[in-house]
Specification:
Largest interface: A-B, 26 and 21 residues
CATH topology of the largest domain in chain B: Heat Shock Protein 90
Number of helices of chain A: 13
Order of helices and strands of chain B: HHEEHHEEEEHEEHHHHHEEEEEHEHH
Order of helices and strands of chain A: HEEEEHEHHEEEEEHEEHHEHEHEHEHHEH
Number of domains of chain B: 4
CATH architecture of the largest domain in chain B: 2-Layer Sandwich
Structural class of chain B: alpha+beta
Number of domains of chain A: 2
Distance between the termini of chain A: 21 Å
CATH architecture of the largest domain in chain A: 3-Layer(aba) Sandwich
Oligomer: heterodimer
Strand content of chain B: 15-25%
Strand content of chain A: 15-25%
Largest sheet of chain A: 6 strands, mixed
Helix content of chain A: 40-55%
Distance between the termini of chain B: 94 Å
CATH topology of the largest domain in chain A: Dna Topoisomerase Vi A Subunit, Chain: A, domain 2
CATH class of the largest domain in chain A: Alpha Beta
Number of strands of chain B: 14
Strand order of the largest sheet of chain A: 10-7-13-12-14-15
C-alpha cells in the first residue's frame, strides 16, 4: 500500500486545536455573564435516558433535541457547575501545555484546587458533561482512561507528541503489541500492508494470534480490546477503518457480554451518545456466535440468570434489530449455554487459527 | 365458739400499720417521701403567707456517723407558721390539718408532716424538734413524740422565745432510718421538677456528704391563691349532704340549696327542686334518709347546673410555667399552653401543658415526660399515667417530630380533686374529660414546636444556601477568568448580595 499521510477533519490534531479554542470560548462566555451581573450558565444537551435516540443513518446512539440549562443560580447546580468550570480550566491547561492526564489524575488534581470530587465517578461524570458541552471527546482535551488495549501488525505511524514529532514506528516492533495510549491516539497513520483488522476481546487469544503469525497469514492488524474497548481504542479502530479503509472483524466470547463488546465497537454506547467518531458501523462481529457453539460443538457453561436478563435487554435494544443479532440472541436463549474463545482449545491449540478463523472471516466478509 | 378479740385502732396506729399507703414503703422511699411531704407543706405555707418561698432542706448523718443508716432531716421555711396551740397536733396527730377544704392544695391527706415524724419515731425512737412562728412577738419551740395508739402528741419540751425579727415560718427536724444514696436520684429529680413549677421559690438542699444544691427563683410573681369553694352538686355524695344538713341554719330547701352549693342561683335552685319534687319550703333537717339519697341521685341527673367555676383552682399560668422550664431545663425552645377550665364528675380542673426542645434537653430515644398534679411532681409509675398514654398514642409525625429528638413534654393538672388512680398518688387515671384536655393541650404546644422547627429549618437552609454560593461563586469567577485568559476577575459581590436579599430575609447576617 502506498504511503499516505492524511490530516482529515477527524484527525486527532485538528480536534485538539478545536478543543483549545472551544474551551477558551466557554471561559469567555462565563466571564462575560458574570461581568454583566448574571449568574453564569451553560446550555447543553440532556444526557438523560429519555433524550437518547438511536440514529439509523449514523448507526449509533445520539442525543435528542432536549437541552438543559445549568445555572450557578440554582443551588443544586452550583457545585457540579463549578466542577465543570474547573475541569474546563484544567483541560485547557493540559491541552496548551501538551500534557495528558488520566481520569484518575483529574480526580486527584482537583484536590489541589480545593475542588474535591466525592469520588472518581463524580469527576468522570463532570468530564462527560464537559464533553457534552463542547461536543468533543475527552481524548481531544488530553484526558485518557487507564490504558490496557494494544495493537500489533504491519502499520507504520508518525508521532505528533512533544519530543517524538515526526518519529515513525512500526506496530510489529514489539512482540507484545503496542499500547493504544495518548501518543498513538494523536499519531498520524502513515502506511500499512494489512488489508483487514481483527479485534480480539481477550489478551490470551491476542498473544496466541501473534505467536501463530495470524497477522502474516491473514494479512491483518490485530487489536486487543481487553474486554469492553476503551474509547481511545474504539476511536483508533474507527480510524483504521475510515482512514486506511480496512474492514474490521471482531472476535469475542460467545455470550451476551461478548456480543455487546462487538456492538459497542460497531454502534457506540448510550453513554457516549453525545460524541461522534467513536463508532465503526461497518465492523463485523465474526464470533463466537451462539450458532458456532452448536455447529462446532464447543464445551459450554450454562447461562446464568443475569446472562438471560441481559439477553432480554439486548433483544429490545434498537442496535440489535438486524437479523444476525436477533438470530443469535434467540439461539442463546434456546440453548441456554455460552462458550469462551478458549473453548476451541478442545480441538488443539491451533484449531482456532487453522479452521475457525478462516471460515468466520469468509462468512462475515 | 371461739371468742374473737375486737379492738379499735387510732388513725396514727392505722397509718403505722399501713405506711405503704402514704408512700413509706422502704428506707429509700421513706426518706424521699419525708422530704417531699415537708417541702410541700413548706411551699403551701409560704403561699398562704403570700411570700415567695425560701426553703432550706438538710440531710445529715445522725450522730455524724457515715456508716449508719439513720439520718437527720431538717426543713426550714418562711411560710405562714403554725399557731402555738396547733403545733403539737400538726406534727403529732394523724389526720389533723388545714387542708380538708374544697380548694386546690398540694396534699389532702393531712398526713404529710405527721407521717414523716411518725416514721422517724418508729425507726429511731427519737423525738421531733419543731420551731414555728406566725410572725407574732413569740417563737415556739417544741420537742414532741407521738402516742401512736391514742393518736396524740406527747410534748416533751416547750419553749417560748421573743421574736425580735418578726420571723415567720416553720423548722422541723427529726431523725429517721433511710437509704439516702438510693433515694438520691429521685430526691434531686423531685427538687428540680419542683423548681420547674415553683419558679418563684428558692430551694436549697445540703446532702449528707455536704453537697449543696441550689434552685434559685427567677421571679417573685406568684400564682393567685385558690379560693375556697362550695361543693358542686355533681360532685357530692350522701354523706356530704347529710353533714351539710346537720350544720345548716336554713329552714327551707330553697335557701339550703342556694347557700351550700356551688353556682346555684335562686332560679336554678327553684327549677331543680321542681325537678326533684321536693317542696321549696321543706325544712332540710326534716329530710328522711331515703329522701337524702334521692336528692343526691337527682343532683346527678339534673342537667341545668352550671359547670363549676375555676376560682378555686390555682394554675401556674403560662408565664410562670415558661419561666420555670427555661430556668431548670434550659431548652432551646419552649411552648406552653393553659387550657380553659373543665370539669369531671363535678370537680373543676385545669390542664397546663408545655413542650421543650433542644438546649440541655437530652436525646433519650424517647420523649421525656414531666407530670405534675397541683404543682407536685409525679415521679413514679409513669407508664400507668394518662399522660404517658396520650403521648404514646399521638401521631407525632404530623408535627414533624420524632422520638429521637431532644424533647420534653410537661403536663400539669390542677384540680380540687386530682383523679389519682391509687392511694399512692403517683399517677392520674384515664378520665375521658381529663384525657381530652391533656391531648388538646399537648397538640397545641406540639403545633407551636412544629412552627418553630420549620422556621428554624428555613433559616438554616438559607444560611447553608448562602455559604454554598459564597464557596463556589469565587471559584467559578477565578477559573473562568483563567480559562478566558483575562487579567482581572469579574466582581461577584452583586451576585452574592442578590442571593442574600432574596433568600436570607429571616436573618440579618
Amino acid at each position: 500500500m502506498e504511503e499516505k499521510k492524511r490530516t482529515s477533519s477527524e484527525s486527532a490534531l485538528h480536534k485538539k486545536m478545536k478543543a483549545v479554542t472551544d474551551l477558551k470560548t466557554l471561559g469567555e462566555a462565563l466571564y462575560h455573564q458574570i461581568e454583566q451581573g448574571e449568574f453564569p450558565w451553560i446550555k447543553m444537551p440532556t444526557r438523560s435516558i429519555d433524550n437518547i435516540y438511536y440514529s439509523p443513518e449514523l448507526r449509533q446512539y445520539i442525543l435528542g433535541e432536549r437541552r438543559v440549562k445549568r445555572s450557578a443560580r440554582n443551588i443544586r447546580h452550583i457545585r457540579p457547575f463549578t466542577q465543570l468550570v474547573w475541569t474546563a480550566f484544567f483541560a485547557h491547561q493540559l491541552s496548551t501545555q501538551r500534557k495528558t492526564s488520566t481520569l484518575r489524575d483529574v480526580y486527584y488534581s482537583a484536590q489541589a484546587y480545593e475542588m474535591s470530587f466525592k469520588d472518581q465517578s463524580e469527576s468522570d461524570n463532570v468530564i462527560t458533561d464537559l464533553e457534552t458541552v463542547i461536543g468533543l471527546a475527552r481524548e481531544d482535551f488530553n484526558v485518557f482512561p487507564e490504558e490496557r488495549s494494544a495493537v500489533f501488525g504491519d502499520l507504520t505511524i508518525e508521532y505528533t507528541v512533544p519530543g517524538y514529532e515526526g518519529r515513525r514506528m512500526n506496530m510489529t516492533s514489539h512482540p507484545d503489541g503496542l499500547m493504544i495510549g495518548p501518543a498513538l491516539t494523536y499519531s498520524e497513520l502513515v502506511k500499512t500492508s494489512a488489508d483487514k483488522v481483527i479485534a480480539i476481546e481477550k489478551g490470551g487469544l491476542f498473544t496466541r494470534f501473534i505467536e501463530e503469525n495470524v497477522h502474516k497469514k491473514f494479512n491483518a492488524l490485530l487489536v486487543l480490546t481487553a474486554g469492553q474497548a476503551p474509547r481511545a481504542t474504539r476511536h483508533f479502530i474507527r480510524r483504521l477503518n475510515k482512514e486506511l479503509e480496512l474492514p474490521v472483524y471482531i472476535l469475542t466470547d460467545g455470550d451476551p457480554w461478548g456480543m455487546h463488546i462487538a456492538m459497542v465497537i460497531i454502534s457506540g454506547s448510550a453513554n457516549a451518545a453525545h460524541l461522534r467518531g467513536l463508532a465503526t458501523p461497518d465492523a463485523k462481529w465474526s464470533g463466537v456466535w451462539a450458532t458456532d457453539i452448536v455447529d462446532y460443538k464447543l464445551p459450554t457453561d450454562p447461562l446464568t440468570e443475569i446472562d438471560v436478563k441481559r439477553l432480554h435487554e439486548l433483544q429490545r435494544d434498537p442496535r440489535y434489530k438486524a437479523k444476525l443479532w436477533q438470530r443469535e440472541i434467540k439461539t442463546f436463549m434456546k440453548i441456554r449455554k455460552k462458550a469462551e474463545q478458549e473453548a476451541f482449545s478442545r480441538y488443539g491449540l491451533t484449531y482456532i487459527v487453522d479452521e475457525y478463523l478462516p471460515a468466520k472471516l469468509e462468512e462475515t466478509k | 365458739m371461739t371468742s374473737q378479740a375486737f379492738e379499735e385502732i387510732s388513725p396514727a396506729d392505722f397509718f403505722y400499720r399501713n405506711r405503704d399507703i402514704a408512700g413509706f414503703t422502704n428506707p429509700s422511699r421513706a426518706i424521699f417521701a419525708s422530704i417531699r411531704e415537708l417541702v410541700e407543706n413548706s411551699l403551701d405555707a409560704a403561699e398562704i403567707a403570700m411570700v415567695p418561698p425560701d426553703i432550706y432542706v438538710r440531710v445529715t448523718y445522725s450522730d455524724g456517723d457515715p456508716d449508719s443508716n439513720v439520718y437527720k432531716l431538717r426543713v426550714e421555711d418562711n411560710g405562714s407558721g403554725i399557731t402555738s396551740r396547733h403545733i403539737p397536733s400538726a406534727f403529732g396527730q394523724a389526720l389533723f390539718g388545714s387542708k380538708y377544704k374544697l380548694k386546690q392544695s398540694r396534699g389532702t391527706f393531712g398526713l404529710g408532716g405527721t407521717m414523716a415524724v411518725l416514721y422517724g419515731q418508729i425507726t429511731t425512737h427519737k423525738p421531733a424538734y419543731i420551731v414555728s412562728s406566725t410572725g407574732s412577738t413569740k417563737v415556739y419551740k417544741y420537742r414532741i413524740m407521738i402516742d401512736i395508739q391514742r393518736n396524740k402528741p406527747i410534748i416533751l419540751e416547750r419553749k417560748v422565745l421573743i421574736n425580735k425579727e418578726q420571723w415567720h415560718g416553720t423548722i422541723v427536724e427529726f431523725s429517721l432510718e433511710g437509704d439516702y444514696f438510693r433515694a438520691m436520684p429521685k430526691i434531686l429529680e423531685y427538687l428540680k421538677q419542683t423548681a420547674v413549677v415553683n419558679p418563684y421559690a428558692n430551694v436549697a438542699f445540703i446532702d449528707p456528704k455536704g453537697r449543696f444544691y441550689k434552685f434559685t427563683r427567677v421571679t417573685t410573681m406568684m400564682p393567685s391563691p385558690p379560693k375556697e369553694t362550695l361543693p358542686h352538686p355533681y360532685g357530692v355524695d350522701v354523706e356530704t349532704v347529710k353533714r351539710l344538713i346537720q350544720m345548716t341554719s336554713h329552714r327551707n330547701m330553697l335557701d339550703f340549696m342556694r347557700t351550700h352549693f356551688h353556682r346555684i342561683s335562686e332560679k336554678i335552685a327553684h327549677s331543680f327542686l321542681e325537678f326533684t319534687g321536693i317542696a321549696q319550703t321543706k325544712n332540710p333537717k326534716k329530710l328522711g334518709p331515703q329522701e337524702i339519697v334521692k336528692l343526691v341521685q337527682m343532683m346527678k341527673r339534673y342537667e341545668e347546673f352550671r359547670p363549676p367555676s375555676a376560682t378555686c383552682l390555682s394554675p401556674l399560668g403560662e408565664e410562670l410555667l415558661k419561666a420555670g422550664i427555661l430556668k431548670e431545663l434550659k431548652p432551646e425552645f419552649t411552648a406552653v399552653c393553659q387550657r380553659r377550665p373543665a370539669t369531671y364528675a363535678g370537680h373543676p380542673f385545669i390542664v397546663e401543658t408545655a413542650i421543650a426542645y433542644g438546649g440541655d434537653i437530652p436525646r433519650k430515644g424517647d420523649f421525656i415526660l414531666y407530670r405534675f398534679a397541683n404543682r407536685i411532681p409525679l415521679l413514679y409509675d409513669e407508664a400507668s399515667d394518662v399522660t404517658f398514654r396520650v403521648v404514646k398514642t399521638m401521631n407525632w409525625r404530623r408535627y414533624k417530630v420524632s422520638q429521637d429528638m431532644p424533647i420534653a413534654v410537661l403536663v400539669h393538672i390542677c384540680s380540687t380533686k386530682i383523679p389519682y388512680k391509687t392511694v399512692g398518688k403517683e399517677f392520674i387515671a384515664d378520665r375521658p374529660e381529663v384525657k381530652r384536655e391533656i391531648l388538646n393541650g399537648i397538640r397545641e404546644v406540639a403545633r407551636k414546636l412544629q412552627r418553630f422547627l420549620s422556621k428554624r429549618e428555613h433559616v438554616e437552609r438559607e444560611k447553608r444556601r448562602l455559604s454554598v454560593f459564597s464557596k463556589y461563586l469565587p471559584k467559578i469567577a477565578r477559573f473562568s477568568t483563567k480559562l478566558a485568559g483575562k487579567e482581572t476577575e469579574p466582581n461577584i459581590e452583586r451576585l452574592l448580595e442578590s442571593v442574600n436579599t432574596v433568600g436570607g430575609k429571616e436573618k440579618n447576617i
